[in-house]
Predict the 3D structure of the following.
Amino acid sequence: MTILFLVLSGMTILGGVGVVASRNIVHAALFLLISLMATAGIYVILFTEFLALVQVLIYGGAVVIVLLFAIMMTRSADYPRISDNRLWPIAAICSLVLVVVLGMAFWQTTDTVVGPQHADFGVIGNSLFTKWAIPFEIASLVLLVALIGAIVIARSDGEDKN
Amino acid sequence: MMPLVYFQILSAILFGLGAYGVLVRRSAVLILMSVELMLNAANINLIAVAAHREGLGHFTNFDGHIIAIFIITIAAAEVGLAMAIILRIFRNRGTVDVSQMNVMKW
């Protein structure tokens, strides 16, 4: 279990480093895919198969594909020319401080914990459709609004406006 | 049994990487990817805590999973919308370099 966790978290962090450090933008998208799929493995370690399935379906199947489409449709010669910010050492220090503060906060939390509990589909579905029913419906509305908004924004408005 | 703090440290490192990417990158698509990393780190933290804790008062220990599902939903909507905005900006200005989007700067 520990070995599996170390391998998966190594893949996750490696993918993250690839996203923020890769020069080629398509490689960055593929590194993001590695990171997200290793995260699905971490959900499996935590006995949360439903979230692992959702992660693979939505992130692997939709989000990364949409990102690759965005890269493809804005394919200009200047992607390699868009350099990183020159103030990157300051950004590195800031995010390092953030990681240290978060890590110390997590490390000092000494509440009693139980082992990883299995969350099966039935319990999650029951909770989602009873206690969280209204947020669930609002989430569907958000998706609809995002869909229509994306179409309206991305529509080309030079030719036939009928 | 894995201690909870390992998962939390992993999520902190991933969040820091995402924050660094948002601060440093100049291409809008790469900033979007870094935001995805940060959302993913939040998801790892939520699910790890939800799997390791008993419920507390009104909250059962499955609420973390539900919130993670909502975060994934919002992330999917956000990516679609952000891609539309990026396409629009590219069509209008011919670049996705965020440092050149300074129309409102005075």
